């Protein structure tokens, strides 16, 4: 059976003393083994990244930018090949995989503007004969720990910005779908990135802990569930590292009485069930303002999901693929089967849908009359389950969302500009959509939530990533005439 190894210093490495199974989610069969890195192997990758740092930091900004221009073209040219790798190990349909790649390319394009992004500032004559300027310098070796649900997009969110800023990277992708990261690392090197600047190690907690504990790793980026994000933030911060740890979500979509309900229903179905709900920006809670709105929405959503085509991601007719593992599928199903006992109404039960073969498929579910305190509401399910919460007023909808421990993304559907503006003002959530169900910002902005959806103070990609992956240094300069030299024990003054 194929063994997927680490990528260290431009070469395949790894003893593969411990391995994990890599499944084809559409068939349920093991298609490869992935090597789990030991602490020593992670330390080797860190040492290689550290050794590559001085030369990469010294590389001119123009030459760095050239890498990203070439990488962008390679990603476009190899999209079909890369999408097939994503689908084979994750299960999402090919069109969705291609969409993921295109959103990752956005950050490559952003990083290609590094000459502008890394400019400092200058002020002359702050005092007589004294000038001040600031520079942005790389933090050093960076760890990037990425989730299974976006095996290309999220690694590009992290690595592109980090490398553009002059850092070197050790990437630890999800062990569930590791091959896409290896493909990216080789594309980077084909684009001109020197070996050792981007290294990939696979594994479990052993590998992660080695990254968090290494004194040579200066910054850690993470995307995953809230409990793990909190743990990584705490451990890395305790070890003196700069940390951005993005956690889970429970994204609410509010539908006002004046909204176009057909458009809202289309958006809810797309945002709730796309990629089988395995998106941190998926809409998992539909908040209907008024029973009339709720009744109409439930009917419209239910009618739309009956015809969804669920099957292998390689089938062009498929609109939704399988979940990532059998265990995850069973966990998602448990939320639906337990909802009625909690007082909710299961309108469409996707757990009863039958599929041929042993793939990790599940049907889509719609659960009405959900309320806080129910597990189907409180937990991040990360599957194709849409809950409907009924509220009477706009204020009740806002209070509901602002009381949630999660605050990643939200949306409001309305035709009233005043309502939309007030929602933007009132809502305590990091990313807001107005008639946009999945408000993932374009690459020139930054992505991140509030509260338990983000640990650390920096959002990912875009301008905030430049701040995260650099340290600012301020230089005060004076070139006095020797005749002006004197001794003064007073506190320096700029006046």
Description:
The longest helix has 20 residues, at 39-58. The protein has helices spanning 39-58, 61-77, 79-90, 94-111, 114-117, 153-164, 179-190, 205-213, 226-238, 261-273, 291-305, 326-337, 375-378, 394-402, 417-426, 462-468, and strands spanning 3-4, 6-8, 11-13, 18-24, 29-36, 122-127, 130-138, 141-145, 168-172, 198-200, 217-223, 242-246, 251-255, 283-289, 345-348, 365-368, 385-391, 406-407, 409-413, 431-434, 450-451, 454-455, 470-478. It is 38% helix and 23% strand. The strands form six sheets. A seven-stranded mixed β-sheet has the order 15-16-17-14-13-19-20, sandwiched between helices. Strands 10-9-8-11-12-22 form a six-stranded mixed β-sheet, with helices on both faces. The N and C termini lie far apart (73 Å). The mean pLDDT is 95. Strand 11 (217-223), helix 9 (226-238) and strand 12 form a beta-alpha-beta unit. It folds into two domains: 3-247 and 453-474, Aldehyde Dehydrogenase, Chain A, domain 1 (3-Layer(aba) Sandwich); 251-434, 3-Layer(aba) Sandwich (Aldehyde Dehydrogenase, Chain A, domain 2). With 495 residues, the protein is of the alpha/beta class. The protein has 16 helices and 23 strands.
Q: Keyphrases for this structure?
A:
Aldehyde Dehydrogenase, Chain A, domain 1; six-stranded mixed sheet; seven-stranded mixed sheet; globular; 495 residues; alpha/beta; 16 helices; Aldehyde Dehydrogenase, Chain A, domain 2
